[in-house]
Amino acid sequence: MYLLTHNLFIKKYHFFAALIILFASSKTSAQNVSSPYSIIGIGDIESSYFNRTSGMANTGIAYRNNTYIILNNPAAISELQSQLFLVELSARGKLVTYSGNGLTTNLTGKDFSVERLSLGIRVNKWWGSSIGLMPYSTSNYAFSGAKSLEGTNSTLPVQYDGSGGINRYYFDNGFRITKNFSIGVNTSFLGGSLTQLDSLISPDLSTALYTDKSIYIRNLYMEFGFQYHIPVTKKWDVTLGGTYAPKTALSAQTTALVKDNSNDTLSNKVLTNNFFTLPNSTGLGIAVTKNKKLTILADYRFQDWSSLNVRGNNYSLVNSSRYSVGVEYSKQKDYMRISYETFNLQAGAFYNQSYLKINNEQINDAGFTLGAGLNSRRSSMSYNVSFEYGVRGSQSLIKESYAGFTIGISYKDFWNTKGKKYF
Amino acid sequence: MKKIVRIYFKYSILFLILLPVVLISCEKTKIQFGQAYVDNSYSNIILVDTITAQLSTVYSDSVSTTGSGVTLAGNYNDNAFGKITAKSFFEIAPPALADLATNAAFDSLKLIIRPNQTYYGDTTFNTQLSVYQLKTDLSFPLYQAQFYNNTDFDVDPNPLGSINTLIYPNNTDTVAIRLSDVTGNNLFDLYKSKDYIMQSATNFLSYFKGLQLAPSTAGMHAIYGFHDSLVMRMYYHETGVFTVNKFLDFPFYNSDNKQFNQVKTDRTGTPLSGFNSTTKEVVSTSLGNSAYIQVLTGFMAKVKFPTIRNLLLRPDFIKILKAELVIRPLKSSYNAVTPLPPDLSAATTDQSNLLGAPLGFTGGGAQTGSLIIDALYNENTSYDYDVTAYLQQQILIGAANQNGLLLIPPFPTAISSFNRVIIGDQKNTQGSIQLKLYYVSVNP
Predict the structure, then answer these.
(1) A 284-323 → B contacts, CB under 8 A
(2) Which of A36, A263, A351, B84 has the smallest count of CB within 10 Å of its CB?
C-alpha cells in the first residue's frame, strides 16, 4: 500500500493498470503448447522464474542482484538498490517437438505468452519488497479417444482438451538482518483451475455432449529463505542460500458442467471438495563471485512428494529433485564512483527429476540455457533474453524436445529522489 | 512532466509490439497420450431400446375424400383390408354456346377418362366400369363443405354406358365409355337450340345433376385412379359438300369442390372385421401384434410411448439426446401389387385421434419416414423418424399421457391412392417397431 500512496506511482498508474490487463488477458488466451504429461497431478510445475536467472537455468537460490527482482529466494529482494522502484514483465515463447513410441510421427507445437509481472521496491535500508503474478503450474494437452456407447458394442469418438493452471499471486519481502545476512518470506496466494473438456461429437447421432471438469484450487502458500554473504577475499565472494516451503494443503473443488450441442447446460455440479497437498520443499544454493563480475552458481531443489502417497492409474507422485548450475559475466562500468552494469552474459544447465512417475519411470527433464542482458544507456530500461533447449520425458512414452526463449523487460525508477541519479 | 510523456510514449510502442504476439493463438497440438489418465465415466451417452412403443390401429368410419384431385373407380379384394369398392361422383358443365349449322346432327356421346398411373390390385384382368346419372344434386350436408368415403347419392339404376376393357395404367392413354344415345341426342338438341339449361353451369347442373363412375360388382381385381380432368365429349357432324365430323366437350366441373370418391369396404373375414362405428381403436396385441394403415378405408396406426417417463426414474438420466423411431412393415405385407407408399408422415395426436401437425425436421420440412426398402433380404425395410424433439416434450408431461403419433401417408396422397402399410409391434417377428433412444447420463 505504500506504493499506492507514492507520488510517482500515481502518475504512472495508467501504465501499470494497462500492464496488468495485458498480462491477465494473455494468461487466459495464449497458453496452448501441448504438454502431454500435464494431465497428471496439478500439471507441469513451473521451474522457471522468468527473471534474470532464466539464462542460468534458473539457478539463483544464492543469487542477489540490486537492480532486478530475484524471486528464487525470498531473501534476495533485500538486495535491491536503495530507493529503487522496478517493474518487470517477462514473456516466453516455446517450440516443442514431440516424439516417442506412442506417436507414429513427430509433431510440433508452439506458443508465446506473457508469464510474469512484478513490481519491486526497496522500502528502506533493511527491507525490500516485491508483488506480482507468475505461474505455479500449467496444464495443457489435447488428444482424441473413444468412449463406449453404453447399450451397444460401438464407441463414440471423444476429444479431450486440458487447459488452465495455477497462478501464483505473490507478496515477497526480504529483510537484511546484518550486512551479510538476509532472510525473506514469500506469501503467495495460489489460485486457478485445471480444466478438462471432453467433447463427445457423434456425426452418426448428429449430436454432441461436452463435459467440462474443472478443479478449482486455492490457498495461501508460504516460502521462507535466507542468504548469507561471505566476502572471502577482496576478489572472491561466496553466497549461501536456502529456501523452505512447508507442506500446504490447497483446497481443491472439482466441478463438472455438462452441455449439449445447443449449448444448453444439462448438469452443473460440485463433485468433490478436497485438498491437493503440496509437499515440503527445500532448496539449497551457492554462488561464488570473482571481482563482482563473474559468478558461478549451483542449486538443488527438492520436493518431498513421495511422503504424500499420491498414486493413480499407472502413475505415482514421487520426490522431485532439480539440479542446476549457472555462470554469469557482468560487465561493470564505473560512473562517479558508483559501478553499474552495462551488459551481462549467462549460461546454465539443469537436470530435473520431476514429481511424475509413469509406468515406473520418472519423467525427467534436462537442458541448457544461454542468456544475455543489456541496460539501456539512455533510458531506465533493461532487457534480458534467454534461450533454453531441453528434452523431457522418455522415449517409451512421449519425449518432448523443446526450444524456448524468455524475454524480460525491466523498468527502473527512483522514488522520492530529489537528488541525482546513479546511472 | 516531459519525462513522463516520454515514458508513456515508449511503453505505448512496447505494447503495440507485444500485443499482437500475445494474441496469436496457435492450434494446440494433439498428442495421443493420456487416455489412461482420464476418468470418462462421469458423463456418457446411453442407448436404450427397451422403452415401449405401443402400437394400435385407429379406425375412422368417415374419411373426407373431397379435393383429392383423383377419380377412383374399381374394386379389389384385399385379404387384409377387405372387399373394397371405389366409386367416383362428379359434375359436368356445358360447353360454351356456339352456333351450330342447321344440318348438324348428333353422332355419339362418350365419357373420356385418363388413367393417372396409380392403381391398387392386379391390372391384368378386364375391368368393367359403368357411368350412372345422379338422381339428386350433390349437396353438402348441413354446415359442412366436404363429402366422405361413406357419402352416397342415388343414381339412376340404368347405366348411361359401360365398358369392359383391359386398362394398362402406365400405358393406356384414355378410356372412352360410350354413353346413351338418347341422353346424347337430348343434350345435343338442347345445345343446338341454346336452351336455357345450356346457358350456365348452374342451369345445366339443375338438369344434369352429375355422374357416378362405378365398377361392376364382379371381378374385384383392381381399383384405378384417373385424372379428374375428365371430359364428356359429344360427337356430331355437319353435312355440306363434305361431311365434317366435329365434337363438343362437356368439361369436368369442380368449382364447387364437390367431386369425391366413395370407398366402401366389406371387412367380413379379415383381421379388421371387428372395427365399426363403436370399436375405433384396437391395440396391436389384439390384432396379431400389428397395426394397419390405409386412410381411404379409414385406418391409421398410432404409436404411443406410455413408459417414457420411466427414464426419469433412472438416477443418471439427464436428457434425451436423440430418439429414433423405426417402423418396420411386415415382411409379407407388401409386394408389387400392394406396394409400400414412399412417404409416411407421423402426425401428432392425443386421445381424440385427430390429426395434428406432422413431425418435422429440425431445419424445417415434414418428416416422411425416408423409406428404405431392403429388396434383398426384406429384413431392414423401414420408415425412420427422428422423434428427439417430440419425446423431449412428451417426457415432461405427467399423469396419463394419451398423446401419440398417427402414421399416415401425407395428404393428398393419403386420399388419392390406396396406400397400405401393415406394421409390427415390438413382439412381431415379421417386422417390429423399434425406439432407439440415446440419453445423456451423468453420474448421480
Answers:
(1) 312-315
(2) A263
Return the C-alpha cell found at A44: 507441469
Of B8, B23, B32, the CB nearest to A15: B8
Extract the C-alpha cell encoding B243: 361431311
Long-range contacts of B7-14 (CB under 8 A, 24+ apart): B7/A12, B7/A15, B8/A14, B8/A15, B10/A379, B10/A381, B11/A15, B11/A18, B14/A409
A387-400 mean pLDDT? 92
Q: Which amino acid would we find at residue B416?
A: S
The single residue listed with the C-alpha cell 505461474 is A135
Cell of B398: 405427467
A157 touches chain B (CB under 8 A): no
Contact indicator for B85, B242 with CB cutoff of 8 Å: no
Strands (E), B170-220: 175-179, 211-215
- In the sheet with B434-442, reading across from the earlier edge strand, the strands are B43-48, B434-442, B317-327, B383-386
**pLDDT above 50 for A8:** no
**E-assigned strand segments in A177-247:** 181-202, 207-231, 236-245
* Average pLDDT over every residue of A134-151: 89
Residue A342 touches chain B, beta carbons under 8 Å: no
Reported pTM: 0.78
Chain B contact set for A9 (CB, 8 A) = none
The pLDDT score that the predictor gives to residue B36 is 82
* Residue B440 contacts residue A258 (beta carbons within 8 Å): yes
Amino acid, res. A106? N
- Identify the DSSP state of A100: S
pLDDT of residue A203: 76
Element (H, E) at A235: none
Measured between alpha carbons, how far is B115 from B122 in angstroms, rounded to an integer? 15
Lowest mean pLDDT of A14-28, A53-67, B130-144, B345-359, name the range: A14-28
**How many cross-chain Cβ pairs, A to B, lie less than 8 Å apart?**
166
- For A356-384, give the DSSP string: EEETTEEEEEEEEEEEEEEE-SSSSEEEE
SS3 A153: coil
Contact (Cβ atoms closer than 8 angstroms) between residue A290 and residue A235: yes
CB contact under 8 A, A103 and B24: no
Angle between helices A13-29 and B2-23 (to 10 degrees): 10
Nearest CA in chain A to B45: A149
Q: What is the CB neighbour count within 10 angstroms for residue B211?
A: 24
Report pLDDT for B272.
93
Nearest of B330, B309, B335 to residue B400 by alpha carbon = B309
Give, in order, the Cα–Cα distances in Å from A184 to each of A52, A127, B427.
Answer: 19, 9, 80
Strand partners, A207: A202
Interface of A with B in 363-392 (CB under 8 A): 379, 381
At residue B23, the pLDDT reads 42
To the nearest whole Å, the CA of B303 is away from the closest chain A CA by: 22
Residue A251, min C-alpha distance to chain B (Å): 21
Query: Taking the CA of residue B4 as centre, how many other CA atoms within 13 Å lie in the half-sphere pointing to its CB?
Result: 10
pLDDT class for A28, splitting at 50, 70, 90?
Answer: very low
Among chain B, residues having any CB pair with chain A shorter than 8 Å are 4, 7-8, 10-11, 14-15, 18-19, 21-38, 40, 42-49, 318-319, 321-322, 438, 440-442
Average confidence (pLDDT) over B325-338: 89
- Whether the predicted pLDDT of A29 surpasses 60: no
Q: Would you report the helix, strand and coil content of chain B in percent, each value rounded to 5?
A: 15, 35, 45
Question: How many Cα atoms sit within 13 Å of A272 on the Cβ side?
Answer: 11
Q: How far apart are CA A136 and CA B378, in angstroms?
A: 65
**pLDDT tops 50 at residue A7:** no
**B400 with B262: CB under 8 angstroms?**
no
